[in-house]
Amino acid sequence: xxxxxxxxxxxxxxxxxxxAFALIVVAIFSAACFLIDQSKFSAxxxxxxxxxxxxxxxxxxxxxxxxxxxxWHNPARAVVVGFLxxxxxxGISDIIIPLLGGMLLGESMHLHICILEHxxxxxxxxxxxIVTGLAxxxxxxxxxxxxxxxxxFISSMASVLYLLSYGLANWMGVIGSVFIIIILAVVLxxxxxxxxxxxxxxxxxxxxxxxxxxxxxxxxxxxxxxx
Length: 227
Hints:
Elements lengths: L1 H36 L3 H31 L3 H30 L9 H4 L1 H21 L3 H23 L9 H26 L20 H6 L1
Helix pairs in contact: 1-6, 1-7, 2-3, 2-5, 2-6, 2-7, 3-5, 3-6, 3-7, 6-7
């Protein structure tokens, strides 16, 4: 648990500022649509959601797989962790929490699950992200933090766009509440995806790590995670 808390402390500032920046970007987009044709805003937001949500899965799979692969070279388990960490957690982040948040704000929200309705749109991003995560952990220094930063920004965009596309009309009037919803929708699921899930899937104390005879005792995990 102390190693997970150390990772959370390292990643949360990136998460909060990325979420705030995403709100600025969406506000600019909202203003541009208002000037051009306000009636098309919801449809345009929906189209953008179907870009940001698959890309979020790509980056989530990359970050989750890279975090796991950095500590344990087990290909089969890395693929499973990367898949679950992207598909399940991104669904919670981009869809379920914004849906519940919109309902708490009194809006009539529509449930739209892309992995069920558009699997061909989503799955290629997931599998490319897993492959990228395996490579990034080996060649890019601090790959997990880098991918987490971009991952969180894209996730923030996806969460806001879901709110705007599937029920929340006057989001600027409740922007404070929206910011809290996005923080919850981004920080908790994304940190679970990038950090908790891969770390919990690591071998137990004394078990072989899969890296040429090395062992990964618990007392060395923190040094490996923070390097």
